[in-house]
Amino acid sequence: MQTRRDFLKTSGQMAFSAAALGTASSRVFAAGSDTLRVGLIGCGGRGTGAANDCLESSQGIQIVAVADPFSDRMKGAINEITKWCQGKQRPVDEIVKVPPERMFGGYDGYRKLLALNDVDTVIIATPPVFRPVHLNAAIKAGKHVFMEKPVAVDPPGARKVIEAGDLAKQKGLSVVAGTQRRYQKAYRENAYAISQRAIGRILGGRIWWCGGALWNRVRATNESDAAYMVRNWVSFVEMSGDHIVEQHVHNIDVANWFIGRPPKMALGFGGRARRKTGDQYDFFSVDYDYGEDVTIHSMCRQVNGCYGRVSEHFVGTEGSLVPDGKRQGKSVTVPAFEEGNPYVVEHRELVRSIREGKPLNDARQVAESTMTAIMGRISTYTGQMVKWSDLMENQESPLYNLRLSPSPEDFEKGTVVAPKDDVIAIPGRD
Length: 430
Known about the structure:
The chain is of the alpha/beta class. The chain contains 17 helices and 14 strands. It has two domains: 4-181 and 343-367, 3-Layer(aba) Sandwich (Rossmann fold); 198-335 and 369-413, Dihydrodipicolinate Reductase, domain 2.
């Protein structure tokens, strides 16, 4: 759990990272050069985008291997990365080095990619259900990691990410997560101001991710359960954790960050009205109790034609603020933070940390934010108050080992059975 003292320490490190870290490599990577060789695990839109962001962030980056269950997505990712290089007038032949023998299909393809000795770091952008297993395997293989958020769909998965993060620390490996607000200048400035009591003690606030419905895939004729679930992953709670976990985790992460700890309990409600595939809800409304009389109200919705807002707002004893905007309170001096696209900055700082031998580690914070979102989902689905301790500490709680199915192991074994579409959890019954 992060204290305010921890935050001050890490904020100071982040504030001056651009000045303190140079561009020259202090260590030698694969094949005796300072080139950083990247493997991409998960070749959908987010994975392809993350690979391009990594290339944008720094010189001396190569994409040398890809893994995905589907060959069309691997080919599509390579084509999009190639187009990106051409558009930026970057030498494709020097950057994209993925021959057919380095394109690993199937649900165990990530294992083959991680076995390559010349891969220094990996981008993990598979559906969230796979991320605990993929992260753990990557760290055991000695790879630095960028992983997309959220990092799990159930309590055991989130705890597994924390364990993998601890192992990464022991091995001197960097783990950076795609909670890009933590790498965004305005958020960093206001987070630092909060740590200096610019608005006094936080009393409460509101966080929102209210937008339209995401894409969905109608099941193809003779499509396997596994393929249907992976290609339609944003529709199944078993794959994404539901949109409170997959999307709203960003705002929840900001609340945990600014308050300095995860909540003690959650109570929420929600429902489903318009979705056409899968088994997720359309909306959630959750009160998070952080203790010390601090409550955050969380609201997220994926319904077309409704008012949209993606933001956060906190109120303190001496003022208030919007984390990426206006702050009202006492004046404090804020250090200079790096400008730029946060999706690129997060990769730039990952690359710097690797080259300078000064590992970054986002694993615990993103796992705790993911677990906070899972806690809200469980409360909403069941209609019950859910305690943080029951997910993280109390092994006698039925929630501690609550696992969603199918699991990553089911995909590798070929034993996936998809849940029925439009059958959802009923509070007070399930």
